[in-house]
Amino acid sequence: MRSKQCCANCFGDRGLTRHIIPKVVADGTGLARSGVCDYCGTADATTIAPAALSQWFEMVLDCYRPAEAGKSLAILLSEDWRLFDHAAMDEAHAKELLADILDDGEIVRQAFAPADPPLHETPQRWDELRAEMMHRNRWFLDKPIDLERLGELLDQLIAPPEEFAQISDLWHRARLIPGPGPLRLDEMGAPPAHLAGHGRANPAGIRYLYLGSTDRTAVAEVRPHTGELACVATFRIPLIRALDLREPRKTASPFLLENREQMAALLAGLPLLERLGKELTKPVQPRSAPFEYIPSQYLCEFIKKQGYQGVIYRSSVSDGINLALFDPNLAEGVSASVARVDRVSVEITAAT
Question: Which of 23, 146, 148, 309 is least enclosed by beta carbons within 10 angstroms?
Fold first, then answer.
């Protein structure tokens, strides 16, 4: 009887997909073949024997301990690292695959919880720091966040060049047309330093270029009214070193780390990374922007200091993706056109 084989689509993990599974295929240790995956059903996939991944999964599972009130390893790996995110990989299929990887059908039936990690910066600490920066101290904080630790965490969220290119080959910026005529392409870049106001990522007086992955996203970001005209410019961006804060649990891969200690430390820091991603995305009222933007400006200035050229984050007003480009000179203008806003959609929830 032919043994079952899995594929990269079963997991949806960047480290497994781009590094480990190709290594297993190249080494010949995974008995690779082409065909239909026996677990997620992907056709024309490169499949390998699940047991070939055992050493990497065993290291990740060292981050967990048995716990009566815990959850199955399949659920924990899904919640903590967004593994098994293929539509076909429900808990039953994930358990089956995990049992075959570990050659242990009993362990997948047991309950586990994260092992006690070392204490690091937490979302609560960030909230305290955020409140202090906005309302008490701006430059000299009573208890600054551990920037060395934060830098180590952020390094797990680098957007590889090939993934950056997949988001969009062209990026867009929109401006509402203030007068009777359209704006020229050379008027669609970042404003000059003396006109650069407070932005979600940039402090006043520092030029960043804000771009959307689609023209609709770019127009939505300027909060237009129905019937207004907007000039939309298209830019080409080189493959930059960018940080991806859209979904940290999906971007960070435990399989790319060297040991259990690093994995446990990253697992402990993921809630903070998620909190920081939300910091860039959440809507802010214009009247409170000068101080509400200070925490995200602090974060982006630190990211820039770490050597990154931009930060990728979700749009708060559309389903698109935004890029804050730290050096506007990296953007090459391609074209500019005029768009009419035909409809603005509003969604509401009950205020608490």
Answer: 148
Q: Which tokens is 228 given?
A: 């207004």
Which of 116, 99, 100 lies closest to 65, judged by CA?
Answer: 116
Nearest to 15 by CA among 232, 212, 332, 253: 253
The Cβ of residue 343 has, within 10 Å, a number of other Cβ atoms equal to 6
At position 255, the amino acid (one-letter code) is: F
Where does the chain have alpha helices with state H? 14-15, 21-27, 54-61, 73-81, 91-102, 123-135, 147-154, 161-167, 215-221, 248-251, 260-281, 289-292, 294-305
Q: What is the pLDDT of residues 218-269, one digit of tens each?
A: 999 999 999 999 999 999 999 999 999 999 999 999 999 988 888 888 988 8
Residue listed under structure tokens 């995200």: 296
Grouping H, G, I as helix, E, B as strand and the rest as coil, residue 172 is strand
Structure token pair of residue 334 = 């391609």
Q: How far apart are CA 234 and CA 213, in angstroms?
A: 10
pLDDT bin (cut points 50, 70, 90) of residue 115 is confident
Strand, helix or coil for residue 161 = helix
